[in-house]
Specification:
single chain; 363 residues; mainly alpha; 13 helices
């Protein structure tokens, strides 16, 4: 019972850190364009994150039952595995936050899960669900690491860059005869909408990862009978032992994860905001509107299919695409290179961390 409660606490710590680590994803552009003050932007992000987190569970199902074959482990080991995966993600998130690098909390968690799962299975790669097809459905609805994580990991940044550049090009054509003051005024208002849209999609994707982790741990504990002797006031922790964890996420898990991420968002992540909103490319309201709208569309599409894609990747590449539509020289390649290295290293490093932590618990 103590181990299960530890999982819930560590998961919520991860969610809190995710909130302030990824705050920049939804508010960096609206702050850098001076449409909102940092305090106002954080309030907008926190509110829209909360709303988005309460809607949909497709991503939660992928995380809880679509990446690892949990039937390969005893319930007690599943609980240990989840703690090690979360710890690996927390360490990486804090490290990249300290250096102001907008890395992916999503991929940090996926890497930690895969690494800890491999350690629990004594190095057997079969424990990772690489592909799982379904008869009569198109390929993009298949399950497994390949379809839900690896392909989207490459396609979502590419989509963000290309769509951002094209969308910005269209906006340039539309406003080419406008006075600069009119462009700034109109898109300052429109950016309030796009920033809210981005915050909503961030909440819908990122909070669901932790919902899935908690559901996975509770289902395992229910199957093992861990909660049979629990006090009556903890009976709400029991989830159905039959069926997939993501089939039904109780409302208390949704609200708890949403509120914790909202609290983390309210803390802010100013180092990452400076990197994305100022160091990478200089933005005006029209650029911020284009980048936020593009990223939100990419995230919304991915969430519909249960793909836990990186909010960070989507908004960062959207900003890059918007900057390149302005002119390629506007992009500061030194900063981009640092960000790309953080992306490349996230899954391998967190997988190694998760593997190492799990081995320590087994030994």
């Amino acid at each position: 019972m103590t181990l299960l409660l530890t999982v819930i606490v560590v998961a919520l710590v991860f969610e809190y850190i995710n909130g302030f680590h990824d705050t920049a994803n939804s508010i960096a552009t609206v702050v850098s364009t001076k449409v909102l003050t940092p305090r106002q932007a954080i309030g907008l992000a926190a509110g829209t994150n909360l709303l988005g987190a309460l809607l949909g569970t497709a991503v939660a199902k992928t995380v809880s039952s679509g990446l690892l074959d949990a039937t390969r482990f005893p319930a007690e080991m599943t609980t240990q595995l989840v703690i090690c995966a979360l710890a690996a993600g927390i360490v990486w998130n804090l490290l990249t936050w300290w250096f102001g690098l907008p890395s992916s909390s999503t991929h940090a968690l996926v890497g930690g899960l895969c690494g800890a799962g491999l350690a629990a299975a004594h190095g057997s790669w079969s424990v990772i669900i690489w592909t799982r097809s379904k008869a009569g459905v198109p390929w993009y609805k298949y399950e497994g690491l390949l379809y839900k994580v690896v392909l989207p990991m490459f396609l979502s940044p590419l989509a963000g860059f290309v769509i951002g550049m094209l969308f910005m090009g269209v906006l340039y054509l539309l406003v080419r005869v406008w006075r600069p003051a009119a462009v700034a005024s109109v898109f300052a208002k429109l950016q309030l909408v796009s920033a809210g849209f981005m915050g909503f999609m961030h909440g819908q994707g990122d909070a669901q990862k932790t919902m899935g982790i908690i559901a996975l741990a509770l289902v395992a504990a229910t199957k093992a009978g861990t909660l049979d002797s629990a006090p009556e006031f903890l009976s709400f922790l029991k989830l159905g032992a039959h069926g997939e964890p993501g089939d039904h996420i109780p409302l208390w898990i949704k609200f708890t994860c949403a509120l914790v991420m909202c609290a983390g968002t309210a803390v802010g992540g100013w180092k990452i905001i400076r990197t994305m909103g100022h160091k990478m490319v200089r933005l005006q309201p029209i650029h911020g509107f284009a980048a936020e709208t593009t990223a939100a569309v990419v995230l919304g599409t991915a969430a519909t299919f249960g793909m836990p894609v990186s909010t960070t990747h989507a908004i960062t590449t959207s900003i890059m695409g918007v900057g390149c539509a302005k002119r390629f020289s506007a992009l500061k390649l030194g900063v981009v290179e640092r960000i790309l290295w953080a992306w490349v290293l996230t899954i391998p490093v967190t997988a190694l961390l998760g593997y190492g932590l799990m081995r320590l618990t087994l030994d």
